[in-house]
Amino acid sequence: MIRHEDIGRAVRDCEYAVRGPIVARAQELERQGRRIIYCNIGNPQSLGQRPMTWVRQVLALAEYPELATLVPAGTFPEDVLETSRLLARETRHGLGAYTESKGYRFVREAIARFISERDGIAADAEAIFLTDGASKGVQSALRILVADERDGIMIPIPQYPLYSATITLYGGAQVGYHLDEANGWKLSREILDRSIADARRRGIRPRAICVINPGNPSGAVLDEANVEMVLRFAAEHGLSVLADEVYQANVWRPGDRFVSFARVLERLALRDVSLFSFHSVSKGYLGECGHRGGYLECRNVPGPVQDEITKLQSIALCANSVGQVVTYLLVSPPRAGSPSHALYERERREILEALRTKAAIVSKGLDAVPGIRCNEVTGAMYAFPRVDLPPGVGDFEYCMALLEETGICVVDGSGFGQLPGTAHFRTTILPPLDEIETVVRRIGEFHGAFVKRRRG
User: Fold this and answer.
1) Mapping DSSP to helix (H, G, I), strand (E, B) and coil, where does residue 102 land?
2) Which contacts qualify for 393-398: CB closer than 8 Å, 24 or more apart?
3) Which residue of 24, 32, 217, 238 lies most exposed, with the fewest beta carbons within 10 A?
4) Which pairing describes strands 382-383 and 425-428: parallel, antiparallel, or unpaired?
């Protein structure tokens, strides 16, 4: 019988807070009949966001092509039928067959067109890998960058625990760089310089810097100057860049815009900086988390290195075929003037406007609570408010008590990283509009009562 102590230390040491003990307790309470509002993870459809009609109609026919002949004429718009026929031709053997290791060629070509149109730059389908969500792309990039415990990966603090958990699992070293909470969670060159110098003093060999833009859990959006600063920093120190850009459609503040690392890299012509960029169908406005679709794009990554990524893909055979198709639908939406275009645009606009409204409700509402400070949520799907707690009380205890008393499931800030001596929690902005104000009100009421009780 295998014992827990027989498991590799790397597996035992890695942690993933967004599905950790608090969530386990939430599920236990739910089985007991309690109503739980899951604000712990960016899972839009679990909190009531409706799937895009375009995606589900095409998927229905892609999975069951015969359906088109079994329903009355006109049930599916002509562009849906046309797209399903294209999928039937390109997938050749249907969605139940393995694809090539990199993923369907026609999907990778569509992604290359999407990047070219988004950024005004060339993109190569052969440098694109289809993955089971962005997470698998991130893991592949980290797998080739980490050789031993001296290899350091710079990650933002706070960060999405995928990065810390994967670096630990692969035996590398985490090199944290703190985002400036007092300045809207912005990046600072001074902080980056201090972080990398400290790592080198500890005998760590920095290999790459990870950037999440828009930020998770910070909710901040980097401007072009910040993106350029990171790339120049990487060039100066011989680092690769991992650009997590899965929230690129989730920009809420008027005047802000998403700027890709690929676009700025090409403008600067920094040929000695390797860039790994990630995108996903899970966020944005599709919210198709369960279909696990995404891609990794490589720039300035030598062919032999890309061959190693292909080998990693081959070991898993391929990304799931349905997720690949959903990725195609993300980057190839209905064309203007097509039968599905008006409905698609209306659904997209409604989803994004609702998220924009909820971002303001959450950040303003929490910031108004005495003892809670919350920066404006300018992007992504999360707030990361700072909470003032009595001495000796941690944010894990706070979040567990919040769950027990209100049924609201959030994640403690210690699971994402934070400045020593501070306490935070991460919450999504995803509950329905008719519920989000209640969530904010309950958190405010709980905070006051909890602090009063713990201070005696």
Assistant:
1) coil
2) 393/423, 393/454, 394/423, 395/423, 395/424, 395/425, 396/22, 398/423, 398/425, 398/450
3) 32
4) antiparallel
Using an 8 Å Cβ cutoff, are 175 and 26 in contact?
A: no
- End-to-end alpha carbon distance in the chain: 48
**Cα 344 to the chain's mean position, in Å?**
23
Q: What is the DSSP string of 230-280?
A: HHHHHHHHT-EEEEE-TTTT-B-STT-----HHHHHHHHT-TT--EEEEEE
Query: Hey, which CATH number is domain 53-92, 2.60.120, 1.10.287, 3.40.50, 1.20.950?
Result: 1.10.287
In this structure, the number of other CB atoms found within 10 A of the CB of residue 229 comes to 17
310-363: per-residue pLDDT in tens?
Answer: 988 888 888 899 999 999 999 999 999 999 999 999 999 999 999 999 999 999
Residue type, 141: A
Q: Look at residues 439, 450, 385 and name the one whose alpha carbon lies nearest to residue 413.
A: 385
> DSSP code of 91?
H
Residue 416: closest CA among 447, 395, 393: 395
Q: How many CA atoms lie within 13 A of 357 on its CB side?
A: 13
Enter the DSSP assignment of 42: -
- Integer Cα distance of 136 and 309 in angstroms: 11
Q: Measured on CA atoms in the order 158, 161, 165, 166, is the torsion positive or negative? A: negative
Residue 381 has, within 13 A of its CA and on its CB side, a CA count of 26
Place of tokens 């839009």: 44
Measured distance CA(239)–CA(154) in Å, rounded? 9
Which tens digit of pLDDT belongs to each residue from 382-425?
999 999 998 888 888 999 999 999 999 999 898 888 888 899 99
Domain 4-49+344-455 homologous superfamily, CATH = Aspartate Aminotransferase, domain 1 (3.90.1150.10)
Query: Cα–Cα distance between 213 and 233 in angstroms, integer?
Result: 17
Cβ distance 131 to 281 under 8 Å?
no
77-96 burial, b at 16+ Cβ within 10 Å, e below that, comes to bebbbebbeebeeebeeebe
Place of tokens 């989730």: 250
- Predicted TM-score (pTM) of the model is 0.90
Rounded distance, CA 212 to CA 222, Å?
Answer: 9
The CATH number given to 105-331 is 3.40.640.10
